[in-house]
Amino acid sequence: MHIYFCGSIRGGRQDVPIYQTIVKKLQTYGKVLTEHVSHADLSEKGEDAVLGDKAIHDRDMEWLTIADVIVAEVTQPSLGVGYELGRAVAMNKRILCLFRPSSGRVLSAMIRGAGCQSPSSLFQVQDYVEGDIEGVLENYFGQLTNN
Q1: What's residue 43's pLDDT?
Q2: CB count, 10 Å around CB of 33?
Q3: Are the C-beta atoms of 70 and 93 separated by less than 8 Å?
Q4: How many Cα atoms occupy the beta-carbon half-sphere of 24 within 13 Å?
Q5: b/e map of 130-145 (b: 16 or more CB within 10 Å)?
Q6: pLDDT at position 47, please?
Q7: Is the confidence at residue 82, as pLDDT, over 70?
């Protein structure tokens, strides 16, 4: 299974430790195409100094195309993550958005509203507590393999 993980880069790197936990768990379910998003040495400038914006966009769109499932940590607002999610919806991809209400933020209505479908919907939003993230992922991927 190819998994595309979305997390904030230029929008802020405050959640890198959480991204690391998520990516480590996702690696038990398949190949995480974007594991670099969880790297602590990736700054808010991302990889632009090495690759350039167009190369990053084109590479990530290629990965998004081959991904079987998209997992996005959406607590830290990010234009890039929003763009990736919109593109994934247009591609009819299976999407799980993860949000921590304890952050004090309010999730965008465009994301929360898209996840107000049935539990079998392609687009799902799951609120979580940081210590429960592995269980949330186990439940989600367990349901995927049972369908």
Answers
A1: 75
A2: 20
A3: yes
A4: 9
A5: eeebeebbeebbeeee
A6: 65
A7: yes
